[in-house]
Specification:
Blueprint lengths: L8 H4 L2 H13 L1 H11 L1 H26 L7 E3 L22 H6 L15 H11 L18 E3 L18
Antiparallel strand pairs: 1-2
Length: about 170
Amino acid sequence: MPPRFKIEDELAHDRWYQFFEATWRFHQLLLAVPLYLLGGWPWVVWGIFVRISVSIVGHWTITYFCHNPGPGKWRVKGASVQASNIPGIGILTYGECWHNNHHAFPESACIGLEKGQADPSWMFIKWLGKIGLAKNIGLPRSVDQQEDLILVETSQVAHCHLGFCRTLR
């Protein structure tokens, strides 16, 4: 039997999230109207329809490839689905390509954990924290709290001190 997807009660019954789930399509009007005024229908098509299509297709494509066997430093004990990292496309995917890191450290907003793993989403979240719009930003667990992880790439550092990730504060 496949795993069952269940949203936690505090999120499932939150009126704010319910509002956004029910109305997200209409939020596009906030951008569509100025785009139409600036450049007409071509700007609306590219700025709304193409942008959303590319984002959705891109997200599901990278998710598909990241959930197939490939490179990754970690294996999560007891997890039915493992993930891989896809090097070289961190900027293009806003860090989503570091999916093995995300599975190993789901509590972390920073998933570009190693040198050279570009993570633009982390940079944006870190900036939101600096200006006070984001709080309680998660970082990877310390080495002594990683009992659910198996290190599979011993050629790399066996822990994540994440110098650039810890510069949040």
